Amino acid sequence: MERIDEAELLRRYAAGERDFNGLDLSRARLSGVNLSGVNLSEANLGSAVLDEADLSEASLRNAWLNGAILERVNLSGANLESANLEAVYIRDANLSGANLRNVWFAYAFAQRSNFTGVNLSGAILHETSLDNALLMGADLQGAELDQAGLSDANLSGANLSGTILKEADFDNANLTNANLRAANIEDCFLAKAIFCNTIMPDGSIANNISGYE
What we know:
By secondary structure, the protein is mostly loops. It is 4% helix and 2% strand. It has one helix at 6-14, and strands spanning 198-199, 205-206. It has a two-stranded antiparallel sheet. A hairpin with a 5-residue loop joins strand 1 and strand 2 (205-206). The termini are far apart.
């Protein structure tokens, strides 16, 4: 895997180059940079610092970002399918409209981030913190969110069918119009969640304003 430093990456990007597929940028310090539309598929960005960077519409398919700092990053419309996002810090970030299908997103810190309309189907989010996150209309079909934190998250209109939600915390989460059909909610914390026209695992509709027993 070819390694380049931050200065070379930015110089080549400024010159119009966009294809950096498979490069080694681990531990790179790229705070606040503009890399919109860049191709970093299969690149190694492990432990990189990318807080407040603009990666909108970027391709990061199969990229390694484990342990990266991505706070307040702009990943709107980006393609991160099958990327490794284990233990990333991605709080207050914008991922609206992004493709995160089949990502490994376990043990991550994603509080207050915007996942509106995101495709997270098949994703692994074991013990990930999504407290206060925006997940309106997100597709989480078949995702694994066991022991995930979703306190005060907005999941209105989200598709959670077939998800594993064992021991997940939905304290004060908004599940209006959400679909939980066939989801595993064993030992899930739902007592203070908001239900309105919510499809429950057994196909029933929950309309009690707060709490589900």
